[in-house]
Amino acid sequence: MHHQRTTGLTATQFATLLTALTNQLIWGKPGGRPPALTPAQALKTTLLYHRHNLTEELLAEIFNTSQPTISRTINTIEKALAKVFKPLEQPLKMSLDVPGSLVVDGTLVPTWNCRSLGKTNFSGKHKRTGFNHQVICTLDGRLLVITDPLPGARHDAHAFRAHGLDQLLDSSTLADKGYIGLGLATPTRRKPGVKVPQGVKDNNRIINR
């Protein structure tokens, strides 16, 4: 399987991540039975699981192994990846300390519709269950921040405040209408029965682009 089509990583990025991962792992017990999956297969399994929300049963079929093996593999790789990425973590304020305007928006990461959390995670906007993440980038699309998850039923404005972003971002930050009233540069909401001046239309068009 091609790395970029399946995991979103180039071959070079995948190899770099795999090298960093193997430095955090002892794959298989010395003198014991060889693991069902190689480290590369284990990493790809975990990335597929998270990127495409595939079931463990389907991954077991793809990699010709059992569902319990897939479950243990994902758990092991997740813990190792947490160690790999730990040194890259930095305070939110430092991540946003870049010149120029920024863009903030919310995104829903889909999850299974568990009965116990269905109402909490159900997004009325997206008509499905998931977690709300706030994503911040530069105007040219360079990713700066993806916040920790909040229940999908939460509105972007609530998530914005809950993560303390209202203390870090100002009117130089572009956002959509879901952030109106938070001190950001947002499009102007049209009032029923009121004609929108051309200048306002032009400003909205610039922000939306």
TrEMBL record:
This is Transposase. Residues 104-205 form the DDE Tnp4 domain. InterPro entries: HARBI1_dom, Transposase_HTH_dom. Its cofactor is a divalent metal cation. The keyword Metal-binding applies. One of its GO terms (molecular function) is metal ion binding. Pfam families: DDE_Tnp_4, HTH_Tnp_4. Residues 36-87 form the Transposase Helix-turn-helix domain. It comes from Rothia terrae. Keywords: Metal-binding.
